[in-house]
Each structure stands twice: as structure tokens, then as C-alpha cells.
Amino acid sequence: MLNKYPIWKYFLVIFIVSIGVIYALPNLYQDDPAIQISHHQSATSVSESTLQQAQKRLERQGIGIKAFEVTNKGAGLLRLNSFEDQLKAKSIVKDWLGDDYIVALNLAATTPDWLRSMGAGPMKLGLDLSGGVHFLLEVDMDKAIATRLKGIHNEIRSELSKQDLRYKVASSSTNTRWVLNFKNETKRDKAMRVVQGKYTDLNITAGEDGVIYWLSYQFSELKIKDIEDYAIKQNLTSLRNRVNELGVSEPLVQRQGRNRIVVELPGVQDTAEAKKIIGKTANLEFRLAAQLDAKAGQYEILDRKEGGQAKLEKKVIVTGDQVADARASFDENGRPQVNITLSGGGGQLMNKATRTNVGRQMAVIFIEERPYTKEVEKVVDGKAAVVKETRFKEERKIISLATIQSALGTQFRITGLDSVGESKELALLLRAGAFAAPMYFVEERTVGPSLGKENIELGFKSVVVGFVLVLFFMLVYYKVFGLFANVALGLNLVLLIAFMSILSATLTLPGIAGIVLTVGMAVDANVLIFSRIKEEMKRGLPLQHAIHEGYDRAFVTILDANITTLLVAIILYGVGTGPVRGFAVTLSIGIVTSIFTAIVVTRALVNLTHGGRQLKKLWI
């Protein structure tokens, strides 16, 4: 029988539409403004008593708290009554807690538990709509140059030691220039020939000062530029990897000027976690424990995480830069560990160092740049004032000190970690890649919803106006069939929002433009179908046959038109960045949903109301 769906097709349409409604519903619940408190150490959770004290302090300042909670990641969340209170609350809590805690602006979801239990959540809004977090980071180029030159100096020291060329490091040596003092001219000149023959990127000078013959070396200007470019590129790669680990949609990570990097995370839900992972300049060093008869200057003393100290050789075996992969897991006793895979070169260095030192202890050192606040006197507007400045200090701590049982290669494990959170964070930082140089937060800006309020209002208005005009036109021009198209158009918007929510896509202002375009494209298919039905009616076909032929013959045209548009959207997504991708994502999803609603849903409504009946007239 013409124009009759089997019962399972109706149930399929109802099922898909129901799923769409459920997953679109969370977007009706507006997020609460909030501040999030988390400890610098992932293993340390924020206690409820800390949140209660924070609540009391804020209430004394006239800032109301809607609720507070400890998240499953151990962070504290204080829900506020208005966005105006956010900045004030952050400043008050930050000053009270000090440098051991990260206090960040956040948006707390208000989705009901029954929707969350089904995995339903709202789609994210871009930086231009509901805001997000903006970081400006500065790469410490002096540290990058100093680290590279120190590595070269260690190689030179080994080479000169092999040739019995003794020297003393002069007090005039700096991070970017090393000066070596020799007892006579012959040894100095021989050392100079060794350095010149092996390191062509160094500017080498020699001279004498009384009875001291000195040799100095530093990087050439061209080499310094290469080091700076490498540091920026390596840090960009590591940042992008870390952002990908956070699961942020459509992030922006790009270079700005000579030594700065901009990071924008639109619609991010956990700004504190983002800052912790992005800002952590963590690295590892593997070193042997010093021999008992080691002389002063051949070793250094570092603190152990569990307490106490240990003497370690200054020579580094490998660093975190040579880690190819790192995964958190558990040892045979159920304690957290990190499985390390080194690169080929790193594996060779590790094997060479351990195969001749079986029975000795090897330490794993965790290196981190920690921020601290210092009050300094400055002249502001011609007057002396005390201002707070953020400084950074390097902390080195031994996280593991174990005896070498056998020669190690490219794969081994790090134990001695306190918690699963610590092992996961260490694995993430190593997997994402170490920074070539430390980076400091120069600017941190959380863009609140008020900034994008006008964009949201205008974008919403454009969708509503376009939607209403299309509804009116379809109803007037196609009558009852236009009503079917309008129902399908409404369901199309619901399914589009549901799909974007399921995919955790970020909606931007260009994305709203994609929705407006989708509204027009969604009824375009129905216009083709209805026009075809009217043509078949003019040819004298029975009404049931006209309906059948209209849907059947228009299908190929609709499919061709939408596939070509989808191909363009895919190309836009592939070559575009940021907002362009937002438009491409919305357009692509809209094409898929519009094909389903325009062809399947309207056909189901037509079959349900007109199928299998003797028709004398069609209101089309």
C-alpha cells in the first residue's frame, strides 16, 4: 500500500526524537557562576572545613553563597548568586589562601541528576558567547639558552678531562657565558682547539690576565635565534598536547611576538585544572647516587619526597625530554606507578649508564617551577607603594631512589608515588612533552558571560526571526504540508542542539550563523518535495501516487545538494581554525539532521495522516 510506514519505522522516529529531546534538555538549565579552589599538589584535596571558612569570609564581605561542594577530583566549588560577585570572591579567597592553592573562576553545571545519570549535559559556549579562559604565557628565553649552554659545558668538561686539560671555572662565568682559567698558555690553546673543532656554534675568545690564561665561549647570535625558535615550537607542541589531554574543544594555542604564547580555552568547565596542567613546567632527571668517596663539587644534596636527603651525582643520565610515552598503572602490590618508554637515544644512554652500575642507586628527580607572591616597593604615579609581584622558584625533589637490579633500556617504571592522581598527572605531563624552557603566566583572564551577552542576544534573535519567518512562509504557502515541514523544522533544531551536546561541541557566534543557515536549508528539502508533488498532481496522477513520486523523485536531488554542501563543510573544518571550525561543525551536523527531519519525519507525518486513504484534495 502506498504511503504507509511499517510500525517499526514510526517507533524508530519516536525513539530518535525522544533521545534528541533528552540530550537537548540540559541546555535549558543555566550554569551557576562559581569559584573553584584546588591545591597545587593533585594528591591534596580541598576539605569541607576550608570551604566553610571561605564561605564565612565571603559572607562577611556581603557576598552570598548558594552552595559549596567538593568535586570528585578533590577541588572545592563555591556556587555564587551572581556573576558580579565572582571577581570579588576570587580576590578575597586568593588573598586568604595564599600561593599553595589555585583559585579560578568557573561555571558550575545545574543539570538535574537524572539527566546527568544518562550522560546528558549542555553544549559548551565559545569565548565570544559565554566566555572561557585566556592565558598569556611568556617563555623564559634566558633559561632556555642557559640550559642548552650548560649541557654543552658538561660535554666540554668531559672532553677536556679525557685529555687531562685541567681548569677552573672563573667567577665571572654567567648563565650565557662560561669562562675557564688555565695555568699556562699551552693548555689553554690546546683546549681552545678542542672546543673549536667540536662546537662550531660557539663564539670562542681567549686572553690572559697576569698569570691566568682564560678561555670563554658563548652561543653565536644565529644559534641563539635557533634556540629561541626551538623553545617556542617545543612549548607550543607541549601546550597543544596538554590541551588535548584536557579534552577542550576548539582551543587556540598560538605564538605572539618573540617569546609569548596565547592560550584560549572557550567553554572550558574546569579552569583550575587547565591552569594547573598548562602552567606546570615539570620535568624529570635521572641521576646516579653519589659514591661515598665523592669529593665536594662532584655531587649535590637534594631533598627526598618522603623526608630526608640524598647525595646525587651532578651528571644527568637522561631527562624528561627523552620520554616517548608515559602511562599510569599499578605495581604488583596495587600501588601507583608510571610506566616509562624512552626514545631510542634516551634508551641507549640509560642502558650505558645502568649496565656498568648495577647495585648502585638511581634517583628520579621531579623539577617544578613554583610561583610565589612577593611584596616589593615600587614608584607608582610618582609615589612609593608596596605592590605584589609573582616570582618563580625552581624546586627539585627526589620522588624515587631505587637500586639498579639490572641494565635498563627504553622501558622501565617509576615507583614511590603517593596517589593515583599524582601518577596520572606525572604521566600526563611527561606524555605531553616537557617544555624546552619555563613559562610564566603574564596574564590570566577569565571572560565572563556578560562580555558575550549582546552576542548571545543578537544571535538568539537572528535564529528566532529567521525561524518565525520560515514558519510563516511554509504555513501560508504549503498549508497543511507546510505545518508538517514546520514540525520537522522544530525537531531539526532540537536534534541539532542534542548532537552538539552529545559531541561536546563548542557553540560560537559563527556557529549560530551555521544554525541560521541550517534553518533555511532544512525547509529547502521540503520545498523541493512539495513542489514535486504539485507537479505530479498537475500531470493528473492520483493524489497518493503524487505524494509517493514527490518524495521518491526529489530524494536524489536533495541528497546530491546536501552531500556537496557537507563536503565543503568538511574542507572548512580541515583547513580552518577557531571560529571557522565552529561554523563548519554546526553546518555539518545541521545537514545530517535536516536530511533526517525533512525526508523521514515529514514523510512519517504525511503517511500517518494521509496514507491508505481515499483523498479528494491535498492542502498543499
Automatic annotation (TrEMBL):
InterPro entries, from UniProt?
Acrflvin-R, SecD, SecD-TM, SecD/SecF_arch_bac, SecD/SecF_CS, SecD_1st, SecD_SecF_C, SecD_SecF_C_bact
Q: Secretion signal: which residues? A: none
Sequence ranges assigned to domain SecD export protein N-terminal TM in this UniProt record: 2-105
Where found, per UniProt?
A: Cell membrane
SUPFAM superfamilies, A to Z: Multidrug efflux transporter AcrB transmembrane domain (SSF82866)
* Domain Protein translocase subunit SecDF P1 intervals: 232-289
What is the membrane topology noted in the UniProt record heading this document? Multi-pass membrane protein
Q: Which UniProt keywords apply?
A: Cell membrane, Membrane, Protein transport, Translocation, Transmembrane, Transmembrane helix, Transport
- In the UniProt record, does the keyword Iron occur? no
What are the transmembrane regions?
Answer: 7-25, 458-478, 483-505, 511-533, 554-576, 582-606
Name the protein family: Belongs to the SecD/SecF family. SecD subfamily.
Name this polypeptide is given: Protein translocase subunit SecD
User: What species does this protein belong to?
Assistant: Spartinivicinus poritis
Q: Tell me the lineage of the source organism.
A: Bacteria, Pseudomonadati, Pseudomonadota, Gammaproteobacteria, Oceanospirillales
